[in-house]
Design goal:
Distance between the termini: 7 Å
Order of helices and strands: HHHHHHHHHHHHHHHHHHH
Number of helices: 19
Structural class: mainly alpha
Radius of gyration: 23 Å
Number of strands: 0
Strand content: under 5%
Helix content: over 70%
Amino acid sequence: MSNDRHTAPEDRIPLFAKIAYGLGAFVNNLLAAAVGGMTIVLNLGLGLSPTLVGWLGAIPRVTDALTDPLMGYISDNTRSRWGRRRPYIFLGAILSGVLFAALWQLPEGKSDMFYFWYFLGLSMVFYLAYTCYATPWVALGYELTPDYHERTRLMGIQNAIGQIAYIVAPWFLAIMQHKTFDGDLAKGAARLALLIGAVTIIFGTLPALLLEERVEGQALVTADPPPPRGFLDNMKDFASGFLITLKSRPFQLLCVATFLVFNGFILISSFQSYVIIYYVFGGNLELGSEYVGYSGSLGAVSTFIVIAVVTFMSARLGKRRAFFWAIGISMVGYGLKWFCYDPDVPNLLLIPAPLMAFGLGGLFTLMPSMVADVCDMDELETGARREGMFGSIFWWVVKVGMAAALAGGGMLLDATGFNVDLGGEQSESTILLLRIFDALIPVLASAIAILAVYAYPITEERALEIRDELEERRGAVSPSAEAPSEQPAT
């Protein structure tokens, strides 16, 4: 068990710097939530078919498969007086804000195909700018400190600040259809997009302006720069780095665990609403939706507490054990749905919400910190710093998994036999399958994720050893080398 080894002063990140990095998380989450939450305007406001709207959401995700790792490679190999990450964060924030605002300035009275191609073309350019911002921002967080515990504290604060976006986002539809815009959703979206674009530019540029990149990481890419290489040589180097990243066993385990926990939740994210409305409240849409809101709000508020608790547990138990506890508690919450979603005592359905919050709250506090430890191991083995590549592939796995889970969730819902025309008269087998999928799938996915992290080899003791070896290679003495050895957090 860890005793929360003292973090050396030079390894601590000042609070203002953690907040500045966290504002990047707010912008990142705000753009992601806005794209998803405002797309409904294309259907309800402009009349595009759900199929066309679905394609508009899916096609840019295909391009992410290439652009995310490519941006990671470019960031990792950039040499400039301003660093590897900050120029792209600054430029990407400005371009993302401008392009997002432009994306929703849709002219009136055009055909469906005009809107489709207009939105698709501009959204492709927007996603390029978004990648230019988000990928280097993620990588910057991995390298802000080499300290095992300070990394988790940083990720806890950025996760908490990022959660604010998900509290604001549910109000986007209400804002867009406010009486100010005379019920014109497209006009409301255009005005809201201007506000979101401005917030993106103001807050998104702050990490580039207020944060500094560490000298250790910079030294590896600024000292003795190699001669310029041609396009083919760069592509070969990109492909080689991409494969090396994918072959990292610890990284594979983290990706598997994240995929399972996150997408186990996403796969059945809509099922909770169906169970509450059609089982607990017998098809009463109004009352059921009200309690869905209560449960969601309680879970969102609880996430802030969860982040603080998980950060504390990580400092005392190590990241792996904190993961086991956080995901284990969330499994209890998912399991309690079977007992607490009770038509006779509907208020019981609020009990699982704070426990389930440990799943995603713990996941996105611990995983970025653990990926940063993997970057250190990769440097020890290869001599290269690839935070951009690791971060881009990690989040690409999350995005692709989310798309697959949303599609799979629809197929699972069809498999239950649910028929919206039946209202509260759904068959017993449909209700039973809804309840089973809602409780069982995330429990099983989370259990497998725990097994994956159990095999993850970077304990606290091993992370400190890696840092000592890296510091020795760089000709410096790490604070951990002067501190007593700790027991591994296994």
